[in-house]
């Protein structure tokens, strides 16, 4: 790998997946990470304490919607690759206020692409050969699956359902257009639902863990029959590192955990773990509370991971049961971290 590619700019590196990527790149792969984050409500620099003092980690507070700032950071750090994770990502928030999602996910991606295009044009031929723009997206852009054996493939037509998934679909299209029209060397990936340590408490798994700990109701949409494929965030980070270094330019890769579960079964598994490690007079299962279903709630997501397994040799290390138990235990042992989040 060229020395220049060792300097990786990660947008949204103080978020849940972004911080896992930063930790993996800096600690496991020894790359120099330039973490660029606006520090919105879901960002938490405490998630990066393990690498903050490393010489191969740098933080820059900046907004991806500020194209001039993005270009300046690329030039300042002589970056060899960009991993674009900065995004608004909560479906419920997108339903209540779609404007922020349009601004960050679409306009922000456009501004970043334009900065990257200008920066790429300034590189010498050797640096251009190794430069990569890696766009990280979601399986939600593909829409809804029936309750059968079907899965999303990389060439599945887009059919987003929510303002969030629509904004991510738009950003995916922009990235591919900048490759086909301007020759920007991109790779892209679409992941299934992530879980693990350092996830902001509004998401399903940490919300249920923390509500269960405090004896609050565990709200489950509808009957809890919606199915998601669950991917441990550390498995995802490792996959993204492989895609960045070895993925084929212009190609996309699906990343999933091969762990389809209904939302209700996930909540019940959390209750089982809490009953085991912090037993109370009544089982945590008694806290489950069925609530009105989310607007436009997709039934099922599942991704086919054949391509990344065959071409890059990746596979998830975590089983869902082991990963979930570890995640519950992490939240139990890291009260200081989740109390620093504004829920």
Structural write-up:
The chain is α/β, with parallel strands linked by helices and 343 residues long. Helix content is 42%, strand content 17%. The chain has helices at residues 16-28, 67-77, 91-96, 99-122, 125-130, 163-182, 204-213, 233-246, 263-277, 306-312, 320-333, 335-339, and strands spanning 7-11, 32-37, 57-61, 81-84, 132-138, 186-191, 193-195, 218-221, 227-232, 252-255, 260-262, 288-291. Strands 3-2-1-4-5-6-10 form a seven-stranded parallel β-sheet, sandwiched between helices. Helix 1 (16-28) packs across helix 8, helix 7 (204-213) packs parallel to helix 9 (263-277) and helix 7 (204-213) packs across helix 11. The model has no long low-confidence stretch (mean pLDDT 96).
Please give a quick description of this structure.
With 343 residues, the protein is an alpha/beta fold. It has helices at residues 16-28, 67-77, 91-96, 99-122, 125-130, 163-182, 204-213, 233-246, 263-277, 306-312, 320-333, 335-339, and strands spanning 7-11, 32-37, 57-61, 81-84, 132-138, 186-191, 193-195, 218-221, 227-232, 252-255, 260-262, 288-291.
């Amino acid at each position: 790998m060229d020395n220049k590619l060792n300097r990786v700019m990660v947008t949204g590196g103080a978020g849940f997946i972004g911080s896992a990527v930063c930790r993996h790149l800096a600690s496991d792969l020894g790359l120099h990470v330039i973490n660029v984050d606006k520090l919105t409500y879901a960002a938490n620099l405490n998630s990066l304490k393990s690498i903050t003092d490393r010489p191969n980690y740098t933080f820059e507070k900046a907004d991806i919607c500020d194209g001039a700032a993005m270009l300046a950071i690329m030039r300042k750090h002589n970056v060899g690759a960009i991993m674009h994770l900065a995004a608004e990502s909560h479906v419920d928030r997108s339903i209540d206020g779609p404007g922020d999602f349009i601004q960050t996910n679409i306009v922000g991606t456009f501004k970043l692409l334009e900065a990257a295009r200008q920066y790429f044009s300034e590189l010498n031929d050797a640096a251009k050969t190794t430069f990569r723009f890696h766009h990280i997206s979601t399986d939600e852009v593909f829409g809804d699956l029936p309750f059968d054996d079907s899965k999303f493939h990389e060439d599945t037509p887009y059919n987003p359902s929510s303002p969030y998934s629509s904004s991510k679909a738009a950003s995916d299209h922009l990235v591919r257009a900048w490759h086909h029209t301007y020759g920007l060397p991109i790779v892209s990936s679409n992941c299934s639902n992530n879980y693990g340590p350092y996830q902001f408490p509004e998401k399903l798994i940490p919300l249920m863990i923390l509500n269960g700990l405090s004896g609050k109701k565990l709200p489950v949409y509808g009957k809890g029959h919606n199915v998601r494929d669950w991917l441990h965030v550390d498995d995802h980070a490792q996959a993204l590192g492989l895609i960045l270094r070895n993925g084929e330019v212009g190609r996309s890769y699906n990343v999933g955990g091969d762990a389809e579960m209904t939302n209700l079964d996930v909540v019940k598994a959390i209750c089982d773990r809490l009953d085991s490690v912090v037993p109370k007079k009544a089982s945590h299962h008694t806290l489950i509370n069925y609530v009105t279903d989310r607007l436009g709630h997709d039934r099922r997501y599942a991704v086919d991971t054949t391509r990344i397994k065959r071409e890059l040799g990746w596979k998830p290390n975590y089983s869902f049961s082991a990963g979930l138990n570890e995640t519950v235990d992490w939240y139990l042992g890291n009260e200081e971290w989740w109390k620093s989040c504004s829920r």
